[in-house]
Amino acid sequence: MRSVLSTDGARQSIAMSPGGKTPIFETCPLPSNISVTEITVNSAKISWNPITSAMYYALEYKLPLSTIWTRVATTTNSIILNNLKEATSYQFRLMTSCSSTAGNFTSISSFNTISSSGCTDIFEINDNRTAAKSIVTGTKNYASISSAVDEDWYKFTNSSLQKNVKVTLADLPADYRVELYC
Predict the structure, then answer these.
(1) Residue 65 lies in a domain
(2) Dist CA 129 CA 134 (whole Å)
(3) Residue 97 belongs to domain spanning
């Protein structure tokens, strides 16, 4: 049994017969319906739909500016991350490993641990376009409005496959203006 990399970088196993027949490429599905729950000041639970062909799942997480991923593995479809920093943003990605192949990682998602003071705003100071904080699309991001003149700027990147942008403001004590700039 040998392995090769496909054009998208995924590892694929190939079975070569003595007669030199065409290799058989196996695929390993991406985890889906990923959710982050039970978020505390120092932990979070990440869950996903189970995959029947999975031997195990690998989850990698890191701080947004870090280049080093921490990897944890499990044979179940959820994992609790412990010993996280309080009021901190984390990025994570997930991969399924099947019988003879490791799949690709999901796109990067993020979550924020909460503050023991009950107020979490890891994005401050972000009160002008230059100081805009990066957020990951497709995830919930929480921030505070500190005064009537507070301005909060955020930036994100989406692809041609993600053409729509949805912004939801909830539980606001007053009317607020939202502007999107390209």
Answers:
(1) yes
(2) 11
(3) 27-112
Report the distance separating Cα 26 and Cα 97, nearest Å: 11
Residue 60 belongs to domain with CATH number: 2.60.40.10
The predicted model scores a pTM of 0.55
Q: What is the DSSP code string of the chain?
A: -EEEE-TTS-EEEE---TT-PPP-----PPP-S-EEES--SS-EEEE----TT-SEEEEEEE-TT--PPEEEEESSSEEEE-SPPTT-EEEEEEEEE-SS-B-PPPPPEEEEPPPTTS---TT-S--SSTTPEE--TTS-------STT----EE----TT---------S-SS--------
Q: What residue ranges of the chain have pLDDT lower than 70?
A: 1-26, 117-127, 129, 133, 137-151, 170-175, 177, 180-182
Q: Is residue 164 part of a domain?
A: no
